[in-house]
Design a protein that fits this description.
The chain has about 130 residues and is mainly alpha-helical. The protein contains 6 helices and 2 strands; from the N terminus they run αααβαβαα. Strands 1-2 form a two-stranded parallel sheet. Helix 1 packs parallel to helix 6. The two termini are about 25 Å apart.
């Protein structure tokens, strides 16, 4: 969701999404496609991909949703830690997690998915000023 929303807001930027525990065999849940479609983003092909060292090398900014993910990456790849940000910290100067909405349902899903898009919009606004 974050990748698609940021691409919509910053079409000139190269945006890619990776996961620490991504499984290419698992499809994107229908609730994600539905949530994005309600916001004007049609379904596209997407295969979850594991984060690789080459991704860290080529990225200008690495945004993570949860502190535990930031801690794991910063520990494994300290040489890239200056590029790593907790998403809400980069967006709002709040060192708080955005729980991954993929495992949530109902109002909890809507709330966290909405928070994710709100943070990504703030990131896009911030990056557009640079």
């Amino acid at each position: 969701m974050a990748q698609r929303w940021l691409q919509k807001q910053l079409p000139q930027a190269e945006v890619f999404s990776r996961g620490l525990y991504a499984d290419p065999a698992l499809p994107v849940p229908e609730k994600i496609w539905h949530f994005l479609a309600e916001r004007g983003l049609p379904r596209t092909s997407h295969t979850p991909q594991m984060l690789m060292k080459t991704d860290l090398e080529r990225a200008d900014i690495i945004l993570l949703m949860e502190q535990r993910h930031l801690d794991v990456l910063a520990d494994r790849y300290a040489q890239y830690s200056d590029k790593m940000w907790l998403l809400r910290d980069f967006a709002f100067a709040e060192e708080k997690d955005i729980p991954d909405p993929i495992a949530l349902s109902g109002r909890a899903f809507e709330k966290n998915a909405g928070l994710l898009l709100e943070a990504v919009s703030a990131v896009a606004h911030k990056l557009a000023k640079k």
